[in-house]
Amino acid sequence: MKDRTEHFRDIVRRLVAEEVINEEKKRRIYSSLILKRAQVHTPFITTANEIRANIRAMRAFILQHRQDYLRKGRMTERERDDLEQEVGLFVKTCRQRIDVLKNAVSGEAPTQQTLAWIGGEGRAGNTNLVAHWHGVVLILSERLHCVTSMFDRMRAAHFEEILQESKPAKREGIPTRARKSLPRPAPSGPGRGHEANGEAAERMEEQVQEYDETRALQLELAGLAEGAAAVEGKVLEMTALSHLFSTRVLQQAQQIEQLYNQAVEATTYIKKGNTELRKTVDRNSDGRIFVILFFVIMILAVLFLDWYSP
Amino acid sequence: MFLNVKIKQIDAVVRMLNLNAAVGASGTADEEVYKVLILDRFCRDIISPLLRVSDLRKHGITLHLMIDQERQSIPDAPAVYFVQPIPQNIQRIGQDLARGVYDNVHLNFVSSLPRPLLEELASACIKTESLHRIAKVYDQYLEFVALESTMFSLAQPLVYLQLNDPTAQDKDVEAAVEGIVSGLFSVLATLGVVPIIRCPQGGPAEMVATQLDARLRDHLVSRNNLFSEPSQLASSFQRPLLCLFDRNFELGVAVQHVFTYRPLVHDVLGLKLNRVVVSAEPGAAGGVPSLGRKPQKSFELDEGDPFWVANGGATFPKVAEEVEVQLAKYKKDIEEVNKRTSGQQVGEITDEDLQGNTKHLMAAVGSLPELTERKRNIDKHTNIATALLHEIRDRGIDGFYLAEEEMVAKGTAERAALLGAINGKGRPEDKVRLAIMFLLATEQTPAADLEAVEAALTAQGADLAPLHYVRKLKSLNVQLASAHAGSKGNLLDWADKLYGQSISAVTAGVKNLLSSGRQLALTRAVEGLMEAKPGSETEQYLFLDPRGPKGGGADAAVRNRGPFKEAIVFMVGGGNYLEHQGLQELASKSQPQKNILYGATEMLTATEFLGQLSELGRKMTAGTTGAVSLV
């Protein structure tokens, strides 16, 4: 790659110096060589640029919080929820703005106002320009999609982690509880067997009773905790699944839309085909009439000739 | 780090799309705007194997238009022009500037823009006062099409015809050589290397080599040149070898029938710019009877396709098997997924099961995209293989292939078998190819055999012009070999020219075909050059070092600096996939591993090459009759 811009400008300078043109024009040309023209954007492009800047800011925001989000203990669940909500809002607004642009571009009959806004005044029928706008909208949506899918991946990774975590915790939970509850009765037997005192025996009985109660309570609580953990795991799974399903449903919706469009297209084709068929039928009957007419005339002619020259 | 021509070119194109600004780590420049890309036909061919439309969009290109089509004004958008530096394009650009079609324009020329055209552009701008619209003017030096990471084409058609045309003026030949040199210079500039040039003596290859050498020398004199600092550092370590060959060096490869997958797709289905168009098989369409034209399907075959990469060099039956194997594997995987997700026994559903189920479901959903991708790939290759099979059966390509292989291996052919093949099925052009191979393979072709072959071909309605051309080349060659230098004066003018360019090369080609059997002459020559051992048959080759002192390239110490790790092999007058495959096999089997880039003026199918040969044959007979009538 080689920059020839300066070379080009030198040639322009030389040519201008050689040529005989008026001073005014010379001055204008020289100034255009040196000065850079300020760019004036139409509102459409300005809006598009704004949206792009927004998307980029969001991307930076997500990247900034990515580490915290993914690492354990750096962020509470609540903070995570807030982050998700924030990103969701951001995406929604961006999408809305892109939709506005899209409608302005692809509206069936753009009003005078929108035309003025997107800078296409008096340029109706300029297909290249319309295609360019469509391209801009497409680029923006692709960017947005890129960022949202990045966030989705991040969220999926997080879910995965939680699921992984909940499993080993449960497995560990059962033996520890068992260990805690089992050894207790062991010291109670032999330790107190030496005291033959009746009072002591009564107290002991009470103690044993108390102890049994606590144990029952403990077991019940442990069972409850286990159940809660199981429920929690299931809920997590359900959220993960629902997330998954929602993405699939979204894809399906897109497919359905595509199908619908194709169906619409097919109907137009069928309509066209019908008109063609009708035309063909018309032509056919025309032809038939002509043939019949021809024969009748011929018959008449033969009769006439026969009559004319006996 | 091996040279990779495709990645280098993609980098260069992406930088251009980002208005020649530095590209950030994320792959896109920071200050991107919405741009329009204006291409001409040649540059579209350059970009199409490199980037898809979605890739273009990633770099802010909303629209891409052809320069010669009717374009409407798009204010508020900068335009990136990527065109050839030819007068028509300059005029179009001038008109666009005058009309103010785009806000500002970035002009990128595919090779160096000559000064007169630059002046023309400048004066057009002054006349219409549209200077402020020109933002930048660049020479990109990208005048080649990178088809794969180790293969490029200059996309210059009919070079063989131009260089070997007996009626051509010196001017035309020079122009063709100049075009090739410019293209090669682009390749080297994009790769950022200054190679050591070797080529056989005599013929177009030498012309190209010396001119390229001169051009590189001229360029290296200037301080601020294209081969910048980092590449110099690398070059002091090891410089690549550039081997230039002429098509006449090994004529047989261009007309030979092939039976491996990639060359077959190229030769039979006409692979072009990594795309192949296949007409869908009539039986499968079922419902709709074809309305005049068959439905066409277009497939992309490049390095993103694992099957294509893995099986490009396999023979056709093996490829068909491989497709089947892949299909079976795919079916098994699908079954697995189905079983895991749906096959839950009725009865007690435990917690573990449930959890496992979820996991399976997630895994299944996750693997679905990959599976559909694989399915699509298999479908694609099944389609291609079916189309190939049709052609092979219709034309009896396998028979031709076997017959040619046998001829090359034995050096002779049974007359009856040959005539049988010619009278058998197949297209006339296939038969002509067989006859040419027969001519090239046998050292002393009996005249009676040849006449019989020609008579048979005429009966089949084949065009004999290519055969005549090759026969003339060979007979001249034999005459010259016996009479040596003395007979040179007796020959006609055009014969002299032919001799200078190609006769000696053809002898070499014939001999190589005879002696080596399987390995191509080109591959062996490249191997010899890369090893650079003294005493090998390639020692006589011309040696040019653009960085070395002028005129003093014959120093033996410098000469035998090899072995070289990297080489660029270039075929003047059209190359094909068979040679590329041979070179890649050489590169991968040698120890330590080597890297060989393969390039040609164009990628020719045998049919196209036959067209050029037939044109030459016709011109030659016209020349002879003219000369005879003069006498």
TrEMBL record, chain A:
Keyword Iron-sulfur applies: no
Q: Where in the cell is it found?
A: Membrane
Q: Which parts of the sequence are annotated with region: Disordered?
A: 166-209
Question: Where does the signal sequence lie?
Answer: none
Tell me if Transport is a UniProt keyword of this record. yes
Positions of transmembrane segments: 289-308
Q: How does it sit in the membrane?
A: Single-pass type IV membrane protein
InterPro entries with a match to the protein in the record: SNARE, Syntaxin-18_N
> A biological process (GO) annotation for this entry?
protein transport
Q: Domain SNARE-complex protein Syntaxin-18 N-terminal, which positions?
A: 3-82
Q: Which GO terms describe its cellular component?
A: endoplasmic reticulum; SNARE complex
Q: Classify the source by domain of life.
A: Eukaryota
Q: Where is the composition biased (Basic and acidic residues)?
A: 192-206
Keywords (A to Z) from UniProt: Coiled coil, Membrane, Protein transport, Transmembrane, Transmembrane helix, Transport
Q: Which family does it belong to?
A: Belongs to the syntaxin family.
Q: What is the protein name stated in its UniProt record?
A: SNARE-complex protein Syntaxin-18 N-terminal domain-containing protein
Protein source organism: Klebsormidium nitens
Q: What is the lineage of its organism?
A: Eukaryota, Viridiplantae, Streptophyta, Klebsormidiophyceae, Klebsormidiales
Automatic annotation (TrEMBL), chain B:
Family annotation (Pfam families)? Sec1
Q: Which GO terms describe its biological process?
A: endoplasmic reticulum to Golgi vesicle-mediated transport; intracellular protein transport; retrograde vesicle-mediated transport, Golgi to endoplasmic reticulum
Alphabetical list of SUPFAM superfamilies matching this protein: Sec1/munc18-like (SM) proteins
What is one GO cellular-component annotation here? Golgi membrane
The protein's GO terms of the molecular function aspect are: syntaxin binding
Highest taxon in the source lineage? Eukaryota
The Swiss-Prot or TrEMBL record describes its family as follows: Belongs to the STXBP/unc-18/SEC1 family.
According to UniProt, the name of this protein is SEC1 family transport protein SLY1
Q: Which organism is it from?
A: Klebsormidium nitens (Green alga)
